Amino acid sequence: MQVTIRDVVRSARLWHIWTRLGLQDVRLKFRRSAIGAAWIFVNLAVLVLSIGFIYANLLGQSPGEFIPYLTIGMILWGYLTSSIVDGGNAFVNSEGYIKQISLPIYVYIFRYFVSISVTTLVTMCAFVIVAVVYRVPVGPGTLLVIPGLLMLMTTSLLLITIFAHLNARFRDVAHMASVGMQVLFYVTPVIFPAHLLRQSRSLSLVIDLNPMYHLLEVVRRPLLTSGPADWQSYVAVALILAVLSAVAAGVIAVFQRRIVFAL
Amino acid sequence: MAHIQLDRVDLEFQVGAERHDTLKSAMRSGFGRRRTEVRTAKALKDLSLTIKSGERVGLIGHNGAGKSTLLKVMAGIYPPQRGTVVTDGHVCPMFEFVTGFEMEATGWENIRTRALLLGMSPKEIDQKIDGIAAFSNLGEFLDIPVRHYSTGMFVRLAFATSTAVDPQILLLDEVMAAGDAAFIESARQRMNELMLRASIVVFASHSLDVLPTFCDRTILLKEGRIVADGPTADVVRRYTGSASPRT
Known about the structure:
The complex is a heterodimer.
Chain A lengths: L1 H12 L1 H16 L7 H21 L4 H23 L9 H6 L5 H28 L11 H25 L2 H16 L6 H5 L2 H8 L2 H15 L5 H25 L3 H4 L1
Helix pairs in contact in A: 2-6, 3-4, 3-6, 4-6, 4-7, 4-8, 4-11, 6-7, 7-11, 7-12, 11-12
Chain B lengths: L2 E13 L1 H4 L2 H7 L9 E14 L3 E5 L6 H8 L7 E7 L2 E4 L12 H11 L4 H15 L14 H12 L6 E4 L1 H5 L6 H13 L2 E5 L6 H4 L2 E6 L2 E7 H11 L5
Parallel strand pairs in B: 3-7, 3-8, 5-6, 6-7
Antiparallel strand pairs in B: 1-2, 1-4, 8-9
């Protein structure tokens, strides 16, 4: 455990390495495309517009409320998905580095955390545009998005840590997680409003017991309503962070010294 | 003072278990429980050695004797299953030149990334980057993505960057040492300078003619154990005496 803490601290202090690698990953992803990082927005815009107008009608929602809701939901969902699926490859894709250069391996966790988080933060600019167009209320309460985002980013870092270790050892994990996230996507209020599910008592449980829902809410609610999420969501997120921290510590304890041999 | 100390180090690779294991087979056997068919390949066996500041140490031995593995243990890349490894000083493993290079990034960007990975600070890079660029002799090509470079240009850039580092402990693998013939005289000289700057050099090599010029001490490895450790001339004589006729 002591070794782990020392390695994490050493890794964190090498921030100029992992920020550079992480930002380079973001830039290189778009370097040879004509419109570059604008693809992030195009991708999102096409999804939101096509799903947005159809589902708004299908579910009887007003586009003015539904489209901002959908936009931020998709962005945050993408953040969690890539933390698990892309972040799961943090060690696997860094094999060349890990076997040739003696940097503590958490450098590569932080590298993926930077690239995934920066991509998400850039994408969130799209929400700002949508919010302006649809006159989403803004007030002091909107600032509650900051603690929400910090919680979500911590979650992302923990998810990357857990799945990077697991996936280095068992390559099936990233595939399984990707399937799991697809299933969760349909039961989590992202492309439909939560209150539609709440009309039925038993389906209400699907929301309340869904960790993804609470993770989305602590960021989504302040942005959409300029007020806090339900207190239950904050409690749930605190619980999720505690559980993920424990799992991450366990996974590290079991696999850390074996990562290089598993690659 | 830089030093390296290995005490009773055992390193084994679990052949089959780590590499080809699937979740399914792990579940079947119960997580964490060793299955009987796991084969372990011992790469280093009960190996102890001390290298002090100022020493230039050669590592020789047949393929598979554990030279590269030993270097990677010294570099902290492979944690040993048993025994302790203590290194004091900035360790710079240089087993190849190119890790960190991105084909889509420009020459300048790659110099910075590679230099950071080798442990240079951003300030140090600012001081050295012009020297690196000059040695690479790539001029305006540094502004374009490395993807457009010829192999020769790429090697020049990678070599110029990697050899600009000021390591306390320099670990070299034979690929670099054996590559001498392919490099022009200036590259050879730059390599020598790099080795002289380091407090400790450990240098795995097959080229027995290069070794004596650099290393006063040489370690002969066989099947993961040290079989001889002493003045280079003696150890090399012992190695060639015992070696199969083709070496």
